[in-house]
Structure to design on (243 residues):
């Protein structure tokens, strides 16, 4: 199904719970699909994610246990664990400032165009304001400020620690979907597994305590019985609202 249309990949993609033990997948192809996943849209292009590509049989076996022994994990040829890394936001900000400085050139502040100043200030001032926090306290102060400001004009309100966490996971989720569609375009199958012990997974992968598991995706080539029935969706008319 290579070089097919996006709609073909969307229609082909299913959550596969049983993979064919006799059919291997190419790790380099999976890596390419992960690289394509990094092109997914994400909040402020902060890229607060990591992609752990698991090919070791020993680690796959450990992850299968941490994924509660479900067949999508025990029969997987490889796995991809998508990790949210809000804790590296300062590194991402520095990377953006370095990139923009190289792009615009080093020059006196008054020589930057309005667009260039906005871009630099976005990462020098706005992102530190959004992501800085102290045990969640600063987040509520920022939220209170935005709530008062919002009485007079539209304002960004997702400033609490819990809000930033949601934003980071949404971005990682977009990357996960991009990865699974890329795999579908290669005629490879996946299953996003939410039934897992995230603490054990973090220990297995030696992840820092502040990291968070967004999704564990098993990979392989489907057996016919690996797709549990025809795809069911709620009638489109009941969930589509046009204004």
């Amino acid at each position: 199904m290579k070089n097919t249309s996006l709609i073909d990949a969307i229609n082909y993609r299913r959550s596969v719970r049983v993979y064919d033990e006799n059919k291997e997948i190419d790790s380099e192809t999976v890596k390419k699909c992960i690289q394509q996943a990094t092109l997914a849209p994400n909040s402020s292009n902060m890229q607060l994610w990591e992609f752990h590509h698991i090919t070791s049989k020993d680690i796959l076996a450990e992850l299968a246990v941490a994924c509660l022994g479900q067949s999508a994990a025990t029969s997987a040829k490889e796995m991809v664990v998508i990790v949210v890394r809000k804790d590296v936001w300062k590194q991402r900000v520095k990377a953006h400032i370095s990139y923009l400085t190289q792009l615009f050139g080093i020059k006196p502040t008054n020589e930057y165009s309005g667009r260039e100043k906005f871009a630099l200030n976005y990462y020098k001032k706005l992102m530190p304001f959004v992501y800085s926090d102290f045990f969640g306290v600063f987040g509520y102060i920022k939220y209170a400020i935005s709530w008062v400001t919002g009485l007079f004009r539209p304002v960004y309100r997702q400033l609490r620690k819990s809000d930033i966490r949601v934003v980071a996971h949404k971005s990682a989720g977009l990357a996960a979907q991009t990865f699974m569609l890329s795999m579908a375009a290669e005629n490879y199958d996946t299953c996003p597994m939410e039934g897992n012990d995230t603490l054990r997974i973090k220990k297995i992968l030696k992840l820092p305590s502040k990291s968070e598991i967004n999704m564990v995706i098993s990979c392989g080539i489907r057996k016919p019985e690996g797709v549990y029935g025809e795809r069911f969706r709620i009638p489109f008319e009941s969930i589509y609202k046009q204004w």
